[in-house]
Design brief:
homodimer; alpha/beta; D-amino Acid Aminotransferase, Chain A, domain 1; Glucose Oxidase, domain 1; 4 domains; metal-binding (chains A, B); pyruvate, phosphate dikinase activity (chains A, B); transferase (chains A, B); EC 2.7.9.1 (chains A, B)
Chain lengths: 601, 601
């Protein structure tokens, strides 16, 4: 008690060995016994009174992720644990600490301010003070750091678009901190030594003025703000970590793939042990600066012919995208989802346009420019939607504009044909999003199959491909027996499925009322981070049962964000899914969680 | 054949009786036999050749709705049919013809143009040329007639807000005609004698100029356009129609209620035989011109106190609303749904505000006005949502602002207490919208129960009430066993349930891609008009089974638009629902369809 009360200072354990070798021998004996009994590292309290050893308390020791891995591997090597037991000793969620980018320790850093280390990882980008600007620059492919006194739910879209967040106010549970951790983005918060001047779009440190557009770096694990870009190191796995993951792979039956939209991400995913790509989003490819104007031409085309002309220019670019990804994943399956988001996401904002037109009119602007912008505004308005999430997107685009999906399918198959010719083994899986009825799939499957046959005929090359569907709308799950008849695979899009099953728009829920739901304990977890097993999960179960009733061996995976969350992975294992797919950096977490799920059952 | 070819003109049947009484006797004998055999009115082709009667063909006769009713009632009275058989002779959907408002035949009409009779019914209103303007005026409670050359999907919100639609181009299957018929609104289309001048906001008839804001009337059954307002007659039911409906009520087990938001609608519903109100939407009450400013104060309040002050002013108004409706439905249940739509629907449009601010700035507008509008824009932006349908609405408002639901519950109960004191028998059913989890219902039920107890204590009056929930989000249906524990009743909101199960925003689907789905036969019907039995229906079945597993006698109804559609009513009967609820004018259709569903089973 004196120790706990701080009255006496304990001595290092080595002092015991030196001063009381006999007691030390007794003590190590007891410790070994305890570790063998509890099969885990123990945190043992003891005292020595009048030459006699008293064991006061023992409990499983707390540890960092890195230590947990080392202890588990050591205990296996010492024969204390079986592999399966060692695997259960590491909490998959904690691995997150080891899987973020960090600043090269050899780098010279110009640290200009210090705040709270609110969310691990490091990143560099242009300083931006406004969420809308961050979103806009993000869409243009720029790296930005969002800098705010505090963030509010209205800034969510800016945080999504930014590489990191810096705030001058608020603690470890402030809005910015909680949101950034949820998204896995670096965040430094409560950085009180900086002063933000929104009016002039700049912030002040003790002796510097940093303007919008200047480059800074933040280290969310250290809480530091650094001037300029700095060299970063991608996370590498320690030998013990690698070993543990090899064991996990031996044990698990659930496959692990990654979500990746670029050859770089695909390569990173391979490095982390992903056995394929479970989701390639093709819309990000359309947002690139050199393509957006052509995409806009396609969208604003006044007829099929004009649209086809724009598509013809996009075709070689898309082919290049798919070539790179399929090559990086040589021999492994790559699920390529055809265009999914509503088209107006590619167009300018109506409000901005309306304001600009008003300004031009009142300041005697160029008549022709005004009428061109008015025409654009008219089209933007015609394409705008009340609820874009439930609007003209996904396979509905493919139904109304089959030529768009046709172009994408052709690009996939041309890339595959070229790779086969070069001696590679591409395994493309073409995925149709937002299906609600087997007839959509039937219609679009034919479009895809025709493209494949054309490319085979044109190139004289045979390649393998499959066509499957996302299950992300309740109706597809409820009618999965019918849908399966036209699908080579199912992939659960649990982000969208959560949105429709709960009637929660993620942006609006996280921005407006979800916190209330968690505070009032109406929901135990954010359903976009931890799968809602009772609601969403029960529909998934229905879909698996119905789908495999029609096709017993149907390949089924999950590619929503939940695919990287341990409790959700355990649930997916229980459902009998074939694979989970998650962001490349979460692949090791998923490999371990999948192994644990198999062991626990 | 000569007759069919038009070479000979047939003679009236009376001529046969006069000229060949014997043949006539034979003929009526055969006809009676045929009618008895087919148990329906027959359309008999015959000829007389050389004094001999030849029956050429017989088939069931085509008829108008009014004739169908008369034939069915006559055949019962003549002993040819049992009541059940007579009820099956009338197509419920056809009754629509008899259930619309029409122009008083005694009125002097100044018909200024004629077009196609595209959708039955008549209405008067201000001429408006723009869907946005129509929507705005509609929200202010104005009656408007939308006048366009043609309508497009972009005009949908204007058609929703208008009392009728007039177009100068397009036929009976043009967009305006199809949409108006779907919504049960009068429409005159293809009115080629008018010329619309959008630039000057007016249209020309042969000799008149009619400006925006002028009042016109249209008769969608006659295709006429009339200058000024004209006296209208509400539909009345013929004695045979009344009799048929009495039989229907004797046969059917499924209850029929109406959706009504005003005492007038409630009275109309009673007149048409509704046994209660299945849905009173309280948001329409908030849109009235005298209330909107107070509602906006409530929404924009900077804290609970300020909000409570606005709510205190709304309380007596809401009490008056509920008093009127409960009184009109004396002795019958009235389901009152607490506030449902997203709050920003009550606020001005962000784009309009942004444009106005730009204009004020560039034209040296009043500084104070600019900053007031900027503050308003900031709040409007903060409340705006990406997908309002899936956003901060329904019981989510009650969770974050319990005082809003508290005020509404108090208003219901104060009205009930006053009616009890006056000797009436109010039966309020308080309904919580958009529930996804039993815990929401538990939390809000307590709020409502507290209000009831307070009112009983304050007034010393006891009254009856129940608290139940909408089932309109998939999760509520999937977890209906849990939800039922806190619910006195379920009511299926099949409009929202269709939106979430199919992932279809109604406005966007009908405006953008649904037509393609129908054309390509991916869907057989518009799922917002005819219930999607396979998808939405299967979830309803689950909810009924689970709900009644927890509470065997649970009262369950449907209040979506499907509650007035015959095939959907038949489906609801099969599910074992207690009632359907539909618009007052469709109550007779529902009564007949419910009876037929009972007979067919």
């Amino acid at each position: 008690e004196d120790v706990v009360a701080g009255i006496r200072t304990p001595q290092p354990i080595a002092a015991l060995q030196r001063d009381m070798p006999e007691i030390y021998g007794q003590f190590t004996g007891v410790c070994n016994l305890l570790e063998q009994h509890y099969r885990d590292m123990q945190d043992v309290e003891f005292t020595v009174e009048r030459g006699k050893l008293w064991i006061l308390q023992t409990r499983t020791g707390k540890r960092t992720a890195q230590a947990a891995i080392k202890i588990a591997v050591d205990m296996y090597n010492e024969g204390l644990l079986a592999k399966e037991e060692a695997l259960l000793k590491v909490e998959p969620g904690h691995l997150d600490q080891l899987l973020h980018r960090r600043i090269d320790p050899a780098a010279e850093l110009n640290v200009v301010a210090k705040g709270l280390p609110a969310s691990p990882g490091a990143s560099s980008g242009m300083v931006v003070f406004d969420a809308d600007v961050a979103e806009k620059l993000g869409q243009e492919g720029k790296s930005v750091i969002l800098v705010r006194t505090e963030t509010t739910p209205d800034d969510i879209h800016g945080i999504v678009a930014a590489q990191g967040v810096l705030t001058s106010r608020g603690g470890m549970t402030s809005h910015a901190a909680v949101v950034a951790r949820g998204m896995g983005k670096p965040c430094v918060c409560g950085c009180e030594s900086i002063r933000i001047d929104y009016e002039h779009n700049q912030f002040y440190t003790e002796d510097l003025v940093i303007k919008q557009g200047d480059i800074i770096s933040i280290d969310g694990a250290a809480g530091s703000v650094i001037l300029g870009a700095v060299p970063m190191l991608d996370p590498v796995l320690s030998p013990e970590f690698q070993e543990l993951l090899v064991w996990a792979d031996q044990v698990r039956t659930l496959g692990v793939r990654a979500n990746a939209d670029t050859p770089d991400d695909a390569a990173k995913a391979r490095e982390f042990g992903a056995a394929g790509i479970g989701l390639t989003r093709t819309e990000h490819m359309f947002m690139a600066q050199d393509r957006l104007p052509i995409v806009q031409e396609m969208i604003l085309a006044s007829g099929r012919e004009e649209r086809q002309a724009a598509l013809n220019r996009l075709l070689p670019m898309q082919q290049g995208d798919f070539y790179g990804i399929l090559k990086a994943m040589d021999g492994f399956p790559v699920t390529i989802r055809l265009l999914d988001p509503p088209l107006h996401e590619f167009l300018p904002n109506a409000e901005d346009l309306a304001v600009e037109i008003t300004r031009l009119r009142l300041t005697g602007g160029d008549k022709e420019e005004i009428s061109r912008k008015e025409e654009l505004l008219r089209k933007v308005r015609a394409l705008s939607e009340f609820n874009p999430m439930l609007g003209h997107r996904g396979c509905r685009l493919g139904i109304t504009f089959p030529e768009v999906y046709g172009m994408q399918a052709r690009a996939v198959f041309q890339a595959a044909a070229r790779l086969v010719e070069e001696g590679f083994n591409p395994v493309p899986e073409v995925e149709i999003p937002l299906v609600i009825d087997v007839k959509e799939l039937e219609f679009l499957r034919e479009e895809v199959t025709n493209a494949a046959e054309e490319v085979m005929k044109d190139t004289g090359v045979k390649f393998h491909y499959t066509v499957g569907t996302m299950i992300e709308v309740p109706r597809a799950a409820l009618l999965a027996d019918e849908v399966a008849a036209q699908a080579d695979f199912f992939s659960f899009g649990t982000n969208d499925l959560t949105q429709t099953v709960l009637g929660f728009s993620r942006d609006d829920a996280e921005g407006k009322f979800l916190q209330d739901y968690l505070d009032k304990k109406i929901l135990a977890d954010n359903p976009f981070m931890v799968l809602d097993q009772k609601g969403v999960g029960s529909l998934m179960k229905t879909a698996v049962e119905l789908g495999r009733k029609t096709k017993p061996g149907l390949l089924i995976g999950i590619c929503g964000e939940h695919g990287g969350e341990p409790s959700s992975i355990e649930f997916c294992h229980g459902l009998g899914l074939d694979f989970v797919s998650c962001s490349p950096f979460r692949v090791p977490i998923a490999r371990l969680a999948a192994a644990q799920a198999g062991i626990k059952v």
